[in-house]
Amino acid sequence: MKKTNLLFAGLLLATLASCGNGGNSSSTPTTNGTLVVGLECNYAPFNWTENSKTNTNHPISGTKTYAEGYDVQIAKKIAEELNMELVIKKLEWDALIPSVQNGLIDLIIAGMSPTPARLIDIDFTNPYYTSEHVLLVEADGEYANITSVDELEGARIAGQIGTLYDDIAHAIPGVVIGGDAPTVPEIVTKLQSGLIDGTVLELPVAQGLVAANSDLKMVRFAEGKGFKQLIDEDTNEARDIVNTDRDVSIGLAKGRDELKNSINSILDNISLDERNEIMTNAVNSQSE
């Protein structure tokens, strides 16, 4: 669901040009028997970092830490079905698309939506999760019991910089934008410190945070009462955010059609019930 800003991509592309598994010219699954997946490891319950090995997490390449979360379990399933060794690389959000374009990683499995702007740069598989956007507020705060987004007029709302959350926050009528930060944990700290009144998040992300923090509350608006539309900065046209931008897909370099088709076949065999079970386990594991 997040939205990336690639203003600095040119510099990063040059840095990454000599790295990786073949870049976007390869149509084969991988060139060396490994499947290299990039993610932030800082976006629970989709992905996060742990310090100790468990039965379900996976080592983060080049570190002594481990990745866990919904994305990690999906990556493990894909690697197993492809009979490849899974390698997870921890990357900043804005580095993900340049990295897959230049072959530093094979796949982006990081809670990313296939927006029109991203589809210009990379390709995407079919969705591996579908969510919705909600509001996270203080449990005892002024906005804990609101039922409509219209009641947020004058509220201090923020979203993670460079993501769809930030775009949605700016599209809420009458709010004051402030307290932006580069990561969700930093935004949540600002909320808990009283520097902002609320932040926009995906449903499972908010669920995990509420489960782990009794001072927070998730506001899930009824149909017609929530976030409606935003102006797409690339087309300057209004885009419905109730029925679009809900899908999360796997990003890969253009031209890797064989890999994409293989992954789509794997995703087709993961039922909705199984996906929901994986997400529920991730939310519960995050809050332990």
Describe this entry's structure for a reader.
This protein has about 290 residues and is of the alpha/beta class. It contains nine helices and 16 strands. The strands form four sheets. Strands 6-1-7-16-8 form a five-stranded mixed sheet. Strand 4 and strand 5 form a beta hairpin. Helix 2 packs across helix 8 and helix 7 runs parallel beside helix 9. The longest helix has 15 residues.
In short:
The chain is α/β, with parallel strands linked by helices.
Secondary-structure blueprint:
Elements: H1 9-16, E1 34-39, E2 42-43, E3 47-50, E4 58-59, E5 66-68, H2 70-82, E6 85-90, H3 96-101, E7 107-112, H4 116-121, E8 123-130, E9 133-138, E10 156-158, H5 164-171, E11 176-177, H6 184-192, E12 198-202, H7 203-212, E13 216-219, E14 229-231, E15 238-240, E16 247-252, H8 257-268, H9 272-286
Parallel strand pairs: 1-6, 1-7, 10-11, 10-12
Antiparallel strand pairs: 2-3, 3-5, 4-5, 7-16, 8-16, 9-12, 9-13, 14-15
